[in-house]
Amino acid sequence: MTALLGYVISWLPMVLILWIYVYFGMKLVRVQRTSAAALETIARKLGDIDARLARREERSGEGARE
Q1: Which residue, among 48, 28, 25, has the nearest Cα to 36 in the 3D structure?
Q2: pLDDT tens digits along 2-56
Q3: 59 vs 26: CA distance, rounded Å
Q4: Cα–Cα distances in Å, from 5 out to 2, 8, 11, 12, 60?
Q5: CA 8 → CA 4, 12, 19, 66, distances in Å?
Q6: Does residue 59 register a pLDDT over 50?
Q7: What's the CA gap between 51 and 45, in Å, rounded?
Q8: How high is the pLDDT of residue 62?
Q9: How far apart are CA 12 and CA 6, in angstroms?
Q10: Angle at 40 between CA 38 and CA 42, to 5 degrees
Q11: Alpha carbon of 4 to those of 1, 7, 14, 26: distances in Å?
């Protein structure tokens, strides 16, 4: 029984450190996914703004020609 307790006590810090690595690794993955989603949203909004400006320039260009 004492030997089993010794094994548990000796492996406990390693298991704890492994659990901490896994926990923070999963947090990092979640943050990266959120960041990627935010960048995609910003890129989409910038594309919409660019399209609106292009349409506005086309309309103002047509009025100037006539």
Answers
A1: 28
A2: 888 888 889 999 999 999 999 999 999 999 999 999 999 999 999 999 999 999 9
A3: 50
A4: 5, 5, 10, 10, 82
A5: 6, 6, 15, 87
A6: yes
A7: 10
A8: 66
A9: 10
A10: 70
A11: 5, 5, 16, 32
pTM of the model: 0.59
d(CA 55, CA 51): 6
| Residue 62 to residue 66: CA distance in whole angstroms | 7
Phi, psi of 39 (to 5 degrees): -65, -40
What is the separation of C-alpha 17 from the centre of its chain, rounded to a whole number of angstroms? 25
For residue 47 the two structure tokens come to: 């594309």
